[in-house]
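step: validate -> pass
step: tokenize input -> pass
step: predict -> running
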Amino acid sequence: MIINFKLASNDNYFVDSQDYEINLNDSSHFSYTFWNNHNKFRFWYNLYSLDLLYLSLAVFAADRLNLRDNAIDGWTREFNIHIPVLKIQEWIIAKDILEKMLSFLSGDIWHINFRQRELTKIELQHFNKMKESKMEVKEYERVCMFSGGLDSFIGAIDVLETRKGNTLFVSHYGGGKGTKEYQDILKEKFIEKYSLNSRDFHQYYAKVVAGEEDTTRTRSFMFFSHAIAVASALGKSVELIIPENGVISLNVPCTFSRLGTSSTRTTHPNYLSLFQQLLNILNIPVTLVNPYQFFTKGEMLMNCKNQSFMKKNIGNTMSCSHPDNGRMLKETETRHCGYCLPCVIRRAAIKKAGILDLSSYRDSKFSLGPTAKMSLNSYRLGLIKFNPKYAFMTIQSNGPISEHIDDYTSLYIRGINELREYLEGIM
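step: predict -> pass
step: emit ->
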């Protein structure tokens, strides 16, 4: 698929045999909220990070526009992306690592073609508004992703309890119900508990108008890029904290049915390594950090730095991979399905930590339909087939592990045992 992306209506660039032409700043083509942010930083956004932001929007749009069912193998697609950038020479140097990173993330073949551009109208308007703004600059020492899930909730607690200086939390949400409402609830809880304010939380949204493909493995690239752009405006080297338990980061298929859409690579160590290499090439002073890469979800809960606050609000977090599916059942309450792998890992972790689970599950006993029963049977089969002797090879089924192989092997075994202890109680 050949897609020509533009950022301005007066861009006359044309690609022979192009399948789509999309103006990312035309709301009839694409909608996003990055420029709705009115927070004031000491510096403006790093130009490389602005290029990265638009590139991530383009990649996400391409991902949504091309159905995997149309691929020869039912999965792997090939993209030829044309996009304007501010720093073309540097992007030409970074091209190989970028394409390798995207291919690993999505499982597709990517070809990125760059052309020179100038600052857009909306960029210049925002730059001038920033200079003219009377808002007091608030200094931040780091940026932390804040999804509304249990891991990010623990990550936010730990940062606020142990780190000095201000933390800026960055969230993303899609078009369905569920994610944003949990982010909003937790935001208010954190504001009240830790004397924060609304400007400490940024929420972003992005949508391609004609998008149909639902796997969207590239969504994480887009929203990490939002956070990186914001981090670049702090004017110093900062950490971007990405709180995710190591078992989910490895995302080894625990069943024989999870070999496709669910086996994401959002925080896989190989992906984060490639992403960091890209940032380094572009001289974007942001370091990607997952402080929980060697923790199971249960271990994260047991080591959380404010146990009382965590236990009181655990029911205000959302882990489910499809939280808005209840609308098909005409449910008004957004809740966990109870049987998808993120739900099961969540429930296993809460049991491991000995915490009363106040979360709402649609099907806590795997009994309300064929999908739930099939999932349970698949988990059972996965546990039967699991052999700790071969764990060091198994953990590389979703991507290569080049460092800390023993640590990741131990992590995976502990994660499987955590899952086993929970499932044995309901089998």
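step: describe -> The radius of gyration is 22 Å.
step: cleanup -> pass
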